[in-house]
Amino acid sequence: MSQSVPPPGNPFAPGAVPPAPFAPPPAPARDNIALGLAAALVTALVAAGVYGGIAGAIEREIGWAAIGVGFLIGLVAGKVGGTNPVLPVVSGALALGAVYLGQIVGIAIIVAKELNVSATDVFLDHFGLLTDAWNEGKDVMTFLFFALAAFAAFSGAKKANS
């Protein structure tokens, strides 16, 4: 016996595909520049604290970690903020600030250990002296790692959307 209409559920019949039993939720909108900038700022502050804490604990600067700080800032900005062309540039600037702040925190921790005082007190009460100490200790490698951190942040923001 022949049928002119194929039976329902036949996967080869046109228009006879049953609806999917579960549809995934829609992806969240990622083109929110304000949220991307806020997330990048929070990431920069946290990364600076971690970077400074590690540098202070081992009592030496870890230049290569600056690249990771920059990349992390850019990656978060790009993932949260989307493809806005402002995000990579701002991520690079935030990476510079985060690496600098991390180095200052590291110096504060080292000084606090030597003087047996709180690192917070050293950081808040003697910030000028910490920046003077940073200026005395900077060299070509310091600026190389600043540049690499900014480049990593810019690249991270771009890679987050590819």
Question: What can you tell me about this protein's structure?
Answer:
- The mean pLDDT is 88.
- Helix 1 (33-58) runs antiparallel to helix 2 and helix 2 packs across helix 3 (86-115).
- The protein is 70% helix and 0% strand.
- The chain contains six helices and no strands.
- The protein is an all-alpha fold.
- The protein is elongated, with a radius of gyration of 25 Å.
- 33% of the residues are buried.
Describe what is shown at a glance.
The protein is mainly alpha-helical and 162 residues long. Helix content is 70%, strand content 0%.
Biggest sheet features: none
Could you tell me the mean pLDDT? Answer: 88
Strand residue content:
under 5%
Poorly predicted regions are: none
List SSEs in N-to-C order: HHHHHH
Calculate Rg over CA atoms. Answer: 25 Å
Portion of residues within helices: 55-70%
Q: What is the count of β-strands?
A: 0
The secondary-structure class comes to mainly alpha
Report the end-to-end length measured between terminal Cα atoms: 55 Å
Report the total helices: 6
